[in-house]
Amino acid sequence: MDDLTKNNLKDQETFWEGEFGDIYIKRNDSLKLLSSNFFFFSKILSETDTELNSVCEFGANIGLNLEVIKKLFPKCKTCGVEINKKAYERLLKNSSIDKAIHKSIFDVKLEKESFDLTFTKGVLIHLNPSLLEKAYQMLFETSNKYILLAEYYNPFPIEVEYRGNRNKLFKRDFAGEMLAKFPELKLKDYGFFYKQDPISPQDDITWFLLEK
């Protein structure tokens, strides 16, 4: 990792470990989001061919996504990787989370573990582009079947100002880049959830389900 990439990583981790990450928890802690997530994951995971027995989310926050997955697949072993300490402490108390890890996607050690599904939801968009290759590698190596990317899509890379901050939100074709990087992957399905959907509003998220 060159010096520029190291600096980008340090800046990224400091941002989410600190006050902004704490505020993010409060902004996303709602029963409405939990209900919306149920419809979201029901739709997406109905496309899988088999029962999910293990799932790992990178950037799990307080566990609302994994909580829903646990309801859909009660026997599924859930793992959440989270960099923010306060969010991690909430993960520890969540009975739907079987394993909580207080690390970032870049320094977590999961070499001996693999999961039926690895995923991010609103995480890759916040990574500096110089860090994406390593994030893609982690998602791929820890999955034995499916990878879900639920992010903001754009056909070409762009940066968007994020709540008054620069270099903190990026849109691009994350799935296309993973498909190009790993020929073993194929596109299983994809779709879009609109922020004004009356039943299941999401923040204009485009999702891609990839299969090994």
Q: Nutshell version of this structure?
A:
This protein is an alpha/beta fold and 212 residues long.
Q: Which bin fits the share of residues in helices? A: 25-40%
Q: What fraction of residues sit in β-strands? A: 15-25%
What's the arrangement of strands in the largest beta sheet?
Answer: 3-2-1-4-5-9-8
Provide mean pLDDT, rounded. Answer: 87
Q: If helices are DSSP runs of H or I spanning 4 or more residues, what is the number of helices?
A: 7
Structural class: alpha/beta
Overall geometry: globular
Q: What is the radius of gyration computed over CA atoms, rounded to a whole number of angstroms?
A: 16 Å
Terminal residue distance = 27 Å
Topology as H/E string? HHHEHEHEEHEEEHEE
The largest β sheet comes out as: 7 strands, mixed
Number of strands: 9
- Enumerate the spans where pLDDT stays under 50 for 5 or more consecutive residues: none
Describe the overall structure.
The chain has a seven-stranded mixed beta sheet, sandwiched between helices. The chain has a two-stranded antiparallel ribbon with strand order 6-7. Strand 4 (115-121), helix 6 (132-141) and strand 5 (143-151) form a beta-alpha-beta unit. It has helices at residues 3-17, 19-27, 31-45, 64-72, 85-93, 132-141, 174-181, and strands at residues 54-58, 77-81, 99-101, 115-121, 143-151, 158-159, 170-171, 186-193, 205-211. By secondary structure, it is of the alpha/beta class.
